[in-house]
């Protein structure tokens, strides 16, 4: 892959609440290369949105960055002032939000909303900015764009609004596009359209995408690499094939097991709920919900074990001394597919 | 849209008609005759007076005459100032009241918006707390108490402004403040709550993600969105200003409608009381209709709904 | 790197079952809606202090009934007229030690009027009557007015709103038109008209409040009832054949309670203001009775020379208004589900 543009190292973020310090992000590290798509997967509350907000410098007031670095072209974004961040946001790093119904200003014409980043970052005058806004509006597939540029958000459907939000994000040709569950609030048919659009535009604009989702199904067609988050930590990361067909972490197993596929016979839910991050449990945070949990899981947090050059997982099951266990049926089936795939590659 | 407007205006006329009717019959229920020096008058004199004012006719006939005259802009003759038409009395006094009311509204809205937005932007800081305290006090201190205090300390002690009466702009400053503090406090509270909501909304987050400056976000996105609903408060403010004027004009001896109204009440001047009541009702109903229309114009969401009618 | 970690073989034994799903238990004790609101209200210092002040005012005002009656109110003592405040033990504070500033110097009014043995905590009025007694009585009037307004809010306002919202259709339309008519005349004008028809005094103020004070409550209740009406649990109750009255009492009122409480807290200061306002312009309560509005009007006449006669009732009235407003805000924050986090 291309040049490394983003490198997050040992990020730790706490939230100050009435009840105490919530340890939302605990020692998270990942990186992003030029032109690739990284998917961050996890259930709600796993810290995936907080991670991306910290990239944008958009953390809530009660958030406290305890440690770590966010290196963007070797500059630490965490050390930047609010003013400096304003010049990065929308220009170098842009973001698409979850709910298109609420993320547009209801009282401003959409043309103006798209033109705003241009006027701010490229110092383009209003007329030219609106002309460029029209271009990008056509690019994201709004029909009759010349007329609709003067419409207000409520005159558009959900899918169209998300296209507009994408237009706003891409209007300055950002290097990184963060998409925070961009399709969750949309109908399934519209979801596919939006995902296709994002892929198409990624090639045109040559941007890297960080794709946040709780839906593994969406990830398969979109991402190059996947990071699985649980309770404020990344528990497994690897290429899309490795995560889907050779997962090593029991949490990833659980996620895949609860996702319907054409071949799957029965779906299994992960029992229980994620731990309270006010007081994270000792050891592996997933232990309490893990049917394969071992004594060590309750005592010591597992380090990352290497599976391949690109694939790492944090589970004691990968320790050389750990007993061999059989993963769930569905995972075994997937791993077999993976072996066939690898075998084909070697030939 | 047109159909909606017609319907609204029809209801408005009906409402005003009912108000007129109710007021009229209430006045008829009132004990005693309207003549202040009744004891000194002979029965014959009272009879003559009654004939002069048409009070000897059956009540229903008086009612028909009253409504008929009102439709022609004739509100009857004042009892207090004999031979003075109520419509003339009102029109000669409406100027100061209108000016005072308008100034107080502008004063209240302008400073209320500023205080409210500053508080919202600095949510949960000492600035916010101060603004909240100011608006609670502004809401709680009755305007007539404030008027007396302003009159004594600012006008009499410090001599910065005239103590009473009506004239150049400097005469209007203290009454405007006394009358406008209520709307100011209400506006500040309203804008603060509204803007705190708006600032936490997704589209503000998107605006931040665009890299806009704090000022740009507030000016281009937050302010407009929190100002629009303020239009709905203009109606209630009008009520507050109308009632407030009754006492403020009295304290500062301003020759306005409110001052006249109190005088009329104290002298049982029925025609004037009815006239002013009708004036207040017409004014209020018109303002509410107007604000509804304006709301439809400035909020794009409602504009569309109206077109769809 | 992982090679360095040496662990005992025992570590890889399966985790005992009972430790599993440990995080399933809910950490915080469950609270009912009211308990939760109360807990949040207690955190709001302003609201708690306001509640405290209101309670004290209620106790003092109503507790004074056996001591301050109409007889005490009319009993004048001209030789004690216009004495400033004098509180035992505060001899060193000018203004509270019986001294009054006359022509730039502090003069002991008590000594001059032969009342050296008397202590009037808030001073006396122009007829030599204790201002403290009159203020307490006035506060009682204000609180009674507040009670009356609350009563009409809760009876007429709530019932009207529920009926209008529940019946819907034509009934609702007519009922809303009536409210529209009532509110297209400024409230105080209605009050004034009532005062003209009846005689100025407590009865007519109460009548006026009965007509005009409940419309806001009725409107809010109606809007909320309309929403509640289509809720599943109400639909279920209807399908099961519960009578409308029972549904209203069992399902609607409990769910409307927060709105009712909050709106009541805003009706009260408005009603108190009404009374003070009317009495101030001379068409409310009149002599021999007194109220804060009457006291303010009396005090205003002598404000230049005897400022305390206006300041004391003004302060009491303002404190009363501020307390109810703050408590109202506190209750709103405590009950408003939007701020529940």
From TrEMBL, chain A:
Chain segments annotated as coiled-coil in the UniProt record: none
Classification via InterPro entries: AAA+_ATPase, ABC_Ni/Peptide_Import, ABC_transporter-like_ATP-bd, ABC_transporter-like_CS, Oligopep_ABC_C, P-loop_NTPase
Intracellular or extracellular location(s): Cell membrane
Classification of source organism: Bacteria, Bacillati, Bacillota, Bacilli, Lactobacillales
Keyword set, alphabetical order: ATP-binding, Cell membrane, Membrane, Nucleotide-binding, Transport
Claim: rRNA processing is one of the keywords in the record: no
Name assigned to this protein: ABC transporter ATP-binding protein
Membrane topology: Peripheral membrane protein
Gene Ontology biological process terms from the UniProt entry: peptide transport
Pfam families associated with the record: ABC_tran (PF00005), oligo_HPY (PF08352)
Gene Ontology MF terms in the entry: ATP binding; ATP hydrolysis activity
Residue intervals of the ABC transporter domain: 8-256
GO cellular component terms, semicolon-separated: plasma membrane
Family: Belongs to the ABC transporter superfamily.
Automatic annotation (TrEMBL), chain B:
Keyword Lipoprotein: no
InterPro entries assigned: BPD_transp_1_N (IPR045621), MetI-like (IPR000515), MetI-like_sf (IPR035906)
SUPFAM superfamilies according to UniProt: MetI-like
Transmembrane helix among keywords: yes
Membrane topology type: Multi-pass membrane protein
GO BP terms: transmembrane transport
GO cellular component, one term: plasma membrane
Annotated keywords: Cell membrane, Membrane, Transmembrane, Transmembrane helix, Transport
A Pfam family reported for this protein in Swiss-Prot or TrEMBL: BPD_transp_1
PROSITE patterns hit by this protein: ABC_TM1
Stretches assigned to the ABC transmembrane type-1 domain: 94-295
Subcellular location: Cell membrane
Transmembrane stretches, start-end: 9-27, 100-121, 133-154, 166-185, 227-252, 272-298
UniProt record similarity statement: Belongs to the binding-protein-dependent transport system permease family.
Protein known as: ABC transporter permease
TrEMBL record, chain C:
Subcellular compartments: Cell membrane
Residue stretches making up the ABC transmembrane type-1 domain: 139-328
Its membrane topology: Multi-pass membrane protein
UniProtKB keywords: Cell membrane, Membrane, Peptide transport, Protein transport, Transmembrane, Transmembrane helix, Transport
Annotated transmembrane regions: 47-68, 141-166, 266-287, 310-331
Alphabetized Pfam families for the sequence: BPD_transp_1, OppC_N
A Gene Ontology term for the protein's cellular component: plasma membrane
A biological process term (GO) from this entry: protein transport
Family that this chain belongs to: Belongs to the binding-protein-dependent transport system permease family. OppBC subfamily.
Name listed for the protein in its UniProt record: ABC transporter permease
Species, as recorded: Ligilactobacillus ubinensis
Lineage: Bacteria, Bacillati, Bacillota, Bacilli, Lactobacillales
